[in-house]
Amino acid sequence: MGIYTQEEEEGEWAQALISPLFERRGIVVLGLNRSHAKNALNKNLIKMMSKAMDALKSDKKVRTVIFRSEVPGIFCAGADLKERAKMHSSEVSSFVSKARATINEMANLPVPTIAAIDGTALGGGLELALACDIRVAASSAKMGLVETKLAIIPGAGGTQRLPRTIGVSLAKELIFSARIVDGEEAKSIGLISHVVEQNETGDAAYRRALALAREFLPQGPVAMRVAKLAINQGMEVDLVTGLAIEEACYAQTIPTKDRIEGLLAFKEKRPPRYKGE
After folding, report:
1. Annotated catalytic, 147?
2. Which long-range contacts (CB under 8 A, 24 or more apart) does 214-220 make?
3. 116 phi/psi in degrees, rounded to 5
4. Strand partners for 19
5. Do residues 102 and 187 lie in contact, with contact meaning Cβ atoms separated by under 8 Å?
6. Which residues on neighbouring strands pair with residue 117, listed in sequence order?
7. From the centroid of its chain, how far is CA 176?
8. Cys-Cys crosslink for 162: which of 43, 105, 151, 171, Cβ 3.0 to 4.6 Å?
9. Which helix (H) or strand (E) holds 260?
């Protein structure tokens, strides 16, 4: 699959890398590597992320996507405030809209997504992680929506996804206080699904994310996609409507070859060989 996007900026490489794990086909890793700016989100990086989302959502071979950082100790420090300070107010609005749209594209990827937070995730960095289906963090990682310190609010989904994740009252408290929590506290409040002790190589959360992704691989690809769709759409409506959504999504699996293969494999007591058909 290689590198979808790579552009040069101010003499340094700002990379949005997408590399498959060759030993496990279907697991794709997108790693942020804007080391000189702590992976801060600027116009160029948002543009590259958007291109990466376009490539991922149309690739039927992709089964799970892991978002991580290639920069030790940092997941994403949020918006690039140095670039922001040079923007006219109209440019700020345009940039935030683009960032919000790109993170929405991440949230709407049809396959499971995992954020591996091995370092600091602040502001837009945490909003990026909140757009993933599952979040894994090192106990030493630091997370928070800190925008109110700058007299602004989270603008890339944070005011909506955080309360849906940890509850309204607690989300308000964290946003109003701009509080930063570590991995242990993030786990206790439900902000992340798994917390792990950091290792010597600084990639403990990434390794845990890989283990999760490998658990997903044996399942039927079509089933995984429609299960995510049913959950995402169902959580935004009442139960009766949600059950109708589930019924419609289930119906998509009935005519598939994979469903027949699953039944046959069960009968023959062997692992199924799913093809996503």
Report:
1. yes
2. 214/24, 214/27, 216/63, 216/64, 216/112, 217/24, 217/26, 217/27, 217/63, 217/64, 218/271, 218/272, 218/274, 219/274, 220/253, 220/256, 220/258, 220/259, 220/262, 220/272, 220/274, 220/276
3. -105, 105
4. 29
5. no
6. 137
7. 24
8. 171
9. helix 257-268
Is the entire prediction scored with pTM above 0.85?
A: yes
Close Cβ partners of 167 (under 8 Å, ≥ 6 residues apart)? 190
Cβ atoms of residues 153 and 175 within 8 Å: yes
Catalytic residue selected from 26, 119, 125, 147? 147
Q: Is 185 a catalytic residue?
A: no
> Which entry of 37, 52, 125, 127 is annotated as an active-site residue?
127
Q: Which of 124, 125, 158, 183 is catalytic?
A: 124
Q: What is the pLDDT of residues 87-105, one digit of tens each?
A: 888 888 888 889 999 999 9
232-249 confidence digits (pLDDT tens):
999 999 999 999 999 999
Digit-coded pLDDT (tens) for 49-72:
898 898 888 888 899 999 999 999
